[in-house]
Amino acid sequence: MLLLLGIIQLFGILQALGARVEVGWDVGYLNISRDGYSTWLAVGVNGRQPIAPVYVDEGDTLLLNVRNSLDKPISLHAHGLFQRNTTYYDGVGMVTECGIPPGESFTYVIDTGGQTGTFWIHGHYGSEVADGLRAPFIIREKAPAVQYDEDVLITLEDWLQMPYDLMGARAQQIRFDQLFSNYPTVLINGIDGNKSQPIHFVPGKRYRLRIASMSVSYWFKFRLPGHKLEIVESDGIAIEPLAVDGLDMCPGQRYSVLVTAHDTDAFNFRFNVTFYADYVPKLADFNPRHYEIPLVYREGAPTRRYAIVGDDKLVWQDEFAMVPRNRQPLLEPVNRRITVSKQEHTPYDGFGLPTYSLGDYAYTHPMVPSLITALTTGNWANNSLAYGPQTNTHVVEHMEVVELMLVNPSGKDHSIHMHGYVFQVVELGPMGNASATQRTAPKLKRAGQWPMRRDTVTFPAYSYLALRFLADSPFVALVHCHAQQHKQRGMSFTLVVAPELLQQTQRMPEKMLEFC
């Protein structure tokens, strides 16, 4: 009897620890057409595109075995994962590692650490993410807080008409406002958005739709006319159900919404997907561009269509209306406030375009990864200049409440992503002269008692945005715009959290050091 009880207890412990899920990725080139318009040398995994989604369960550890069959270094970032005590697996080239050299292999050990929800994995060294190195990463809850009958994944991507680096090089011959004259197209669930495969509903059933924007530069609006969407998750954070008409998603954001199917199969419907960017010239049928996904209740049933409704008549998601299920109060008092302003600079970058910054300098990678500097320079690791002024580094002490005050006096929206943490969205307000460019500055909004937490947020034109986080995990975290051309032109800064504790608790894998 005692032996049986011991076996049962051991089984419970193993269940709590989770499984080790191995996934193999051979990253190589593919000469393919994904959108039906252009064929070019893209990046795929195991000889295919789209890359298969990665699924694990709560508590599991993902072993991502990567071989680099490209002719340049790569690194892989699990977008939204905290990587507590394993900063070196965050996968940011020349920030947390030197990258996997061509012909080499490396295993990322990604401990999901109690996180659940909708994430994605993408290249984070150069432009590989734009060329196709991106895939959804789903961590399924063992006991979901909300009940549903079926889980449906919908991925949204923008797709260029040529490799990203070649697209950037065209700026030497043409003005920036024509840089995307060959406007990107849309991939829905990995294929041409004009050929979207139908999603099937059964009358009366409840569906969890996971919508992941794996976009490089463009925003997506997502709607399902004739149905109500209830948001229950945002960037891996479970929230109290919030009814909306649609989602307006910046690059990198993810949502889960619940949809209850109608009781009858008399009609079919269509999802509406709108693809747009405010910093690219508007052009009919290109920016914005509209797509539809068939929603089939019954083959052959007529499709019910609805009159076009202006966006201002619809209810869209709002961080200031969301309440996390785990009601973390507003973090206070603030121990450190870091103010950074989005700036444009000359001299220009290598393509003749102005550089951007979130701080004094347009970010450029250091010669030595910032994590290695933090781990090897002793007390000097507490000096931000040790990381190079071009990294815009701020050193933060352990357990400080940090407020990031971001200022955007320009007429362009941005998508801000923070590595290693989620932040509370505390305040949004107007900034600068919006009327000069016929833009509308956002109205003042302040968080309530339980602010929304997430890892990626829209940073509107002519605004300031206050974000707070608790520096409870030693880390070297990049904060950057997730629009690829803005990031590559310098719109990033670095947070080094508790470097002395980092030195005491973390050691980079030997193979990773050999790659340097």
Mean pLDDT: 92
Strand order of the largest sheet: 11-10-9-13-18-15-16
N- to C-terminal separation? 55 Å
Uncertain runs are 1-15, 171-180
Q: Outline, from the CA principal axes?
A: globular
Structural class by sheet pairing and helices:
mainly beta
- Give the C-alpha Rg: 23 Å
Q: Total number of helical segments?
A: 6
Helix fraction bin: under 10%
The strand count comes to: 32
Largest sheet: 7 strands, mixed
Estimate the strand proportion: 35-45%
Short précis:
The chain is mainly β and 516 residues long.
Structural description of this entry:
- The protein contains six helices and 32 strands.
- It has 516 residues and is mainly beta.
- The strands form six sheets. A seven-stranded mixed β-sheet has the order 11-10-9-13-18-15-16, with no helix packed on it. Strands 21, 22, 24, 26, 27, 28 and 30 form a seven-stranded mixed β-sheet that branches. A five-stranded mixed β-sheet has the order 12-20-19-14-17, with no helix packed on it.
- A hairpin with a 2-residue loop joins β15 (229-234) and β16.
- The protein starts with a helix and ends with a helix.
Topology diagram in text:
Elements: H1 2-17, E1 20-32, E2 40-45, E3 54-57, E4 61-68, E5 76-79, E6 105-111, E7 117-123, E8 134-140, E9 150-159, H2 164-169, E10 185-188, E11 191-192, E12 199-200, E13 206-213, E14 219-223, E15 229-234, E16 237-244, E17 246-249, E18 254-260, E19 269-276, E20 289-296, E21 336-348, E22 354-358, H3 370-376, E23 393-396, E24 401-408, E25 414-418, E26 423-430, E27 445-446, E28 453-454, E29 456-459, E30 463-470, E31 475-481, H4 484-488, E32 492-497, H5 499-505, H6 510-514
Parallel strand pairs: 1-4, 3-8, 9-13, 12-20, 21-24, 23-32
Antiparallel strand pairs: 1-2, 4-6, 5-7, 7-8, 9-10, 10-11, 13-18, 14-17, 14-19, 15-16, 15-18, 19-20, 21-22, 24-30, 25-29, 25-31, 26-27, 26-28, 26-30, 31-32
